[in-house]
Design brief:
- The chain has 4 domains: 4-55, no CATH class; 63-213, no CATH class; 241-366, Alpha-Beta Complex (DNA primase, PRIM domain); 379-537, Alpha-Beta Plaits.
- The strands form 6 sheets. It has an 8-stranded antiparallel β-barrel with strand order 5-6-7-8-13-12-11-10. Strands 24-25-21-23-22-26 form a 6-stranded mixed β-sheet.
- It is an alpha+beta fold and 540 residues long.
- It is built from 11 helices and 26 strands.
- Helix 6 packs antiparallel against helix 7 and helix 8 (391-407) packs across helix 9.
- The structure holds manganese (II) ion.
Length: 540
């Protein structure tokens, strides 16, 4: 992590009355708060107020919840156990995950593990660091009500005690190890036993860790029944669908479940020569990365059945799913603004995805909310469209947003739009729906405009923009759709909306850098998807 020290040392003046006994807070953690430019600033230890430093270890926990509604424990300081405890809660939120919590400093240090933890040392589980929870949370099971943060059922999956194994980097406490980015410990639970490590991943903002079983007598190689952390892009490096299809025992033009593909040789992108077969191969190869961003969202299809073959080529936007589409294509019936029923397609699986591509869909445009709560977006979009400005300006504005959102302790990612601009995305975890999310986005955007007023504007009227970049947050509205990551755009170069790492925003980045073949190579090279924080941060 690239942290600049802001102040060499500070006097610790703790307002003990505010949050109970402060003695479990170590001075090193007080100091860590005073490193500026840290992507990962959170509520671990302290909050700074005008009157001095106040211990607020559970501030974020408190802020996210309404204790008049949820039955989760209130944010009170707990009494440390003689032997520290751990708990893993199976949390059936929007996305099932496993909350892994270790007692330290009188609270539960917490990570949302995206899949069931395992004793298989070959499997590394993504564990997203989340806010500290009160010690009492270790006993919590039950239902978090609809509309509340993390709504859904919580069960205790495993619990017990643990021993810290101080290593080179974390010779001190668990908290020191968390600061250093690595902790090792032995779990004494029902399901999980033996030595484990939690290691912070590099270069992705600081919230993403890996939970790894160490090799010992409790290890069960092969125990995990799902995928083995293999580079999932391995089989996708070549572009031709035919070759891969044959490797899987199919012939070209056939898919499982019997989808027949038509006119695979038709040229869809004349500038590059990419055919419909190439577009099908691209969507087949990208499906695992794309589908999480489409699943259970109403989708508008941008269809160009003859591709970009000419100015008169058909190009239309399809919301309603025709009756003659196969019955297995999932649909959701919603009312249009005029009160008419619209059967939106749900692109929840590869089969549906490829069927729609075969129907001439080039770009999928999903809503920002899912069918389980259509009034509440699960992320906020900042659209940076250069217009009469430049791509360099878009990068400057994206970086300013990045700084601002980090300061707000909100996860954020950036991607190319696939056309000329950039999109910055942040999960929406606040209270309320689209209106509140948009108001928040507008406030953030306003602050960016205050910082760099010569470059960016939120002015909706084109004539008032004076060549500045328009930072658009108005798409955060019910019924609007947005370009998700990993879709190809209907432009000659067949460019793809591509998630990038923050440190890739340099002069070598061009908006058209990634197309339907180069992005597959890129994903083969990357260890992890730059969108991972986005998927995991949404309702952890
Ligand atoms: Mn959770």
């Amino acid at each position: 992590m690239n942290c600049r020290r802001k102040q060499p040392d500070i006097m610790m003046t703790a307002n003990a009355a505010a949050y109970g006994n402060p003695t479990h807070i170590t001075l090193s953690r007080v100091r860590s708060r005073w490193y500026d430019d840290c992507a990962d600033t959170d509520d671990r230890a302290l909050s700074v107020s005008a009157t001095g430093i106040i211990l607020m270890p559970l501030d974020t926990y408190k802020r996210k919840r309404d204790f008049n509604i949820t039955s989760e424990p209130k944010p009170a300081a707990g009494t440390s156990h003689r032997t520290p405890i751990f708990v893993i809660q199976e949390h059936h939120a929007t996305r099932l995950h496993y909350d892994f919590r270790l007692e330290a400093e009188g609270v539960l240090k917490s990570w949302a593990v995206t899949k069931e933890p395992t004793l298989d040392p070959a499997v590394k589980r993504l564990a997203v660091e989340v806010e500290d929870h009160p010690l009492k949370y270790a006993k919590f099971r039950g239902d978090i009500p609809e509309g509340q943060y993390g709504a859904g059922h919580v069960e205790i999956w495993d619990n017990g005690t643990y021993e810290h194994l101080p290593g080179d980097k974390d010779a001190g406490s668990i908290a020191d190890g968390i600061d250093a980015g690595k902790i090792e410990f032995v779990l004494h639970g029902e399901k999980l036993r033996g030595a484990f490590a939690l290691v912070r991943m590099k270069n992705d903002g600081g919230k993403n860790w890996l939970l790894i079983k160490k090799k010992d007598d409790h290890a069960r190689p092969g125990a995990a029944t799902d995928e083995k952390q293999k580079p999932s892009t391995e089989s996708r490096k070549g572009k031709p669908s035919a070759k891969r299809a044959r490797a899987e025992g199919r012939t070209s033009g056939e898919r499982p479940e019997g989808i027949e593909f038509s006119h695979e040789e038709k040229v869809m992108f004349p500038d590059t020569g990419y055919t419909k077969g190439d577009v099908l191969a691209f969507y087949d190869a990208i499906a695992d990365h794309l589908l999480p961003h489409l699943r259970n969202r109403p989708v508008t299809l941008e269809r160009l059945p003859d591709g970009l073959s000419g100015p008169d080529a058909p190009h239309f936007w399809q919301k309603n799913t025709p009756d003659y589409y196969p019955g297995w294509i999932p649909r959701v019936e919603l009312e249009s603004e005029r009160g008419e029923p619209v059967n939106y397609v749900l692109v929840n699986d590869r089969q549906t995805l490829l069927y729609l591509v075969n129907q001439g869909t080039i770009t999928f445009h999903p809503w920002l909310s899912r069918i389980d709560n259509l009034d509440r977006p699960d992320y906020v979009l900042f659209d940076l469209d250069p217009g009469h400005s430049t791509f360099a300006a878009a990068m400057t504005v994206a970086k300013a947003l990045h700084t601002m959102l980090d300061r707000e302790e909100v996860a954020n990612v950036v991607k190319t739009s696939g056309k000329s601009g950039l999109h910055v995305l942040a999960p929406w975890t606040g209270a309320g729906g689209y209106d509140e999310a948009r108001a928040w986005a507008l406030e953030i955007a306003g602050r960016v405009v205050e910082d760099i007023p010569d470059i960016v504007t939120t002015e909706r009227s084109k004539s008032e923009r004076h060549g500045k970049l328009y930072l658009d947050v108005m798409q955060n509205a019910r019924g609007h759709h947005a370009v998700p990551p990993y879709v190809v755009r209907a432009v000659g170069a067949a460019t793809v909306s591509t998630p990038i790492r923050w440190n890739e925003l340099t002069s070598t980045l061009t908006p058209g850098k990634f197309d339907i073949t180069s992005i597959i190579k890129r994903l083969g090279r990357l260890k992890n998807d730059p969108m991972a924080p986005m998927i995991s941060a949404v309702n952890p």
